[in-house]
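Chitobiosyldiphosphodolichol beta-mannosyltransferase: structure, please.
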Amino acid sequence: MAASCVALLALALALPLLLLVAWKRWRWGRAARHVIVVVLGDVGRSPRMQYHALSLAKRGFSVTFLGFCTSKPHDELLQSDRIRIVRLTELQRLAVGPHVLQYGVKVVFQAVHLLWKLMCRKPAAYIFLQNPPGLPAIAVCWFAGCLCGSKLVIDWHNYGYSIMGLVHGPGHPLVLLAKWYEKLCGRLSHLNLCVTNAMREDLAENWGIKAVTVYDKPASFFKETPLDLQHQLFMKLSRTYSAFRACSEPSDPGMERSAFTERDAQSGTVTRLPGRPALLVSSTSWTEDEDFSILLAALEKFEQLIDDGERLPPLVCVITGKGPLKEYYSHLICQKHFQHIQVCTPWLEAEDYPLLLGSADLGVCLHRSSSGLDLPMKVVDMFGCCLPVCAVNFQCLHELVKHEENGLVFEDSEELAAQLQTLQPTALQGQSDVPRVQRAWLCEGCASRLGETYLVCVCFYLRK
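Here you go.
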């Protein structure tokens, strides 16, 4: 009798433990092939994290993507049956009260909202977070991971405090607080990825964080655009932007013409227009780390060269993107009175942007890293489209752009204006074998310097 009581007591004590172990095994079995990707920003304007999600999905993971849904992501992401996008609510800044109070309310709201969204998801083996923005996302994702048994992976694109410093100054209390928070909470992660070797070294030396460099690489849809697709894009844009409209109507009513191309309606053949303008493209987030006054000054010098009799083509300059300084620079552009240059600032659909890069003659990058440690992904995309690039110089740009090897590097508007003169008319007469200027800039080894694919790199490090 006593033995039976002891056995029942032992079973009663062991049963909850056995149930707990079984529950944890079941929970981990569900979580092992699930990853939550978090961006406290616009999903459509976070290409690197979109590529991470696609890479994980192709390797058999189910992916929940948390972020703001302001602009449309790539179709491949939307069409994947392994990726689910969960919308986060973006709280606009309050219109009243001190700036610090407005910012504090926004941070508290984002923290509570993000934690709620994370806890409502099914268990995940990893929470994959983009930083910046990391306030309050790093602490929230770490706390949710502790509760749910998820490991935190941070992908360091830059430092959030350095971006804040562009607006408020490096000594502002909010900037100093953000730096302390980022440095403290960044050490809570289980794995860290970063975008350059320079950032990896800085994280190790000054933050005590060990990271792995994963260079950006262009997605497969960044490639040269066939001439017929170029024409379709130009005709589509011409309905909204005058820079893409033909200067004159074709003599043959059966021809369809843009500023750059024309198509024979009967045969469907597309040809480049003789004497067409050169197409220059620059993309931006319209933030303080990109000084577009450099490009505008270079365009003024380019215009003066044409007025002085230099044999240079007219120019269409397309600056794509959204951001806080767009209105400021749009006002400056309107004050210019170019005769040979047209500037437009469209916001392109996700599918049209790679088509535009693949149709252009030259790409210009004005990104100066706030920390000096990150690289402009826009240049990577341009390389994918075999588009020659002129990029403004900063600390670690050499990890991506090699001057006169796979691109040109400039320091100011004078140097950029000189580089724009490489747009010689002989490269713009419509020969099918020379659709770009200075193709030799893109050496065969360029792609290897862009690093491993996301598919191999991300999944390998998650399994370590």
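Notes: Residues 2-31 form the longest helix (30 residues).
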